[in-house]
Amino acid sequence: MNITEHTLWIAFSQGKRIASGAPRVVATDVKHFVDSHATDNVLVFDAKTSFPVEIDLRGSLSAVLKHLPIIQSQEPAPDTAIPTSSGRTAGRPKLGVTAREVTLLPRHWEWLATQPGGASVALRKLVEQALRSNKEVDRLRQAQEAAYRFMNVMAGDSIGFEEATRALFDCDFGRLQEFAEEWPDDVRNHALSLAEAATVKGEELECAL
Predict the structure, then answer these.
(1) Which InterPro entries match (predicted)?
(2) How far lies 172's CA from each of 30, 159, 177, in Å?
(3) CA-based Rg of the chain, rounded to a whole angstrom?
(4) DSSP character for 170?
């Protein structure tokens, strides 16, 4: 589990939000909550991706905070090469190039061999072009997946879950709100906020192709 200076966590117990914010803040609040509610189950999520977070709550608060992952820089230093699995650096160190295996059909290799700069340069250009052209679609897909991931754990047994899930992937935000109406307030509000991450200036969700 990696965390950065932008990482946010959110914690729930019995359908109620008990903590949200930076990892150290959430870990502190969860530790205090568990110490006074020993029988209550607590679930912690990455607030953006909805991936589950495991916090080692054994011992004192200082021990809990000590066991948290160290904050990582989001990008490698520009002048630092990323080592390959063999321990050697690959490519131009200042670009942080990593060598990995790519499997293509013969006709793909033939085409790449004709491109200026060779296969590596051509592949990097293609990937950069795909990143730019698919940015919005990828953002929507990731937002939908995060919302579903959270909904499945926190509302999987709730009334309207199946319909809400279909509405989410049909990009019908209004129906999603309707079917989530009976869910616990904090669960409903966070699920809707995750779905809203795919909207632009209040517009309706646009489905990923």
Answers:
(1) DUF2239
(2) 34, 18, 9
(3) 22
(4) T
Q: Report long-range pairs for 6-10 (Cβ below 8 Å, ≥24 apart).
A: 6/74, 7/46, 7/71, 8/46, 8/47, 8/48, 9/44, 9/45, 9/46, 9/47, 9/53, 10/44, 10/45, 10/47, 10/190
Query: What is the arithmetic mean of pLDDT over 167-174?
Result: 90
Look up residue 205 and give its DSSP letter.
P
- In 3D space, the residue among 46, 54, 55, 41 whose CA is nearest the CA of residue 22 turns out to be 46
Q: Among candidates 90, 115, 109, 108, which has minimal Cα distance to 100?
A: 90
**In which residue are the tokens 């992952």 written?**
69
pTM above 0.85, yes or no: no
The helix/strand/coil state of 46 is strand
Residues in the chain: 209
17, 22, 51, 154: CA torsion to nearest 10: 0
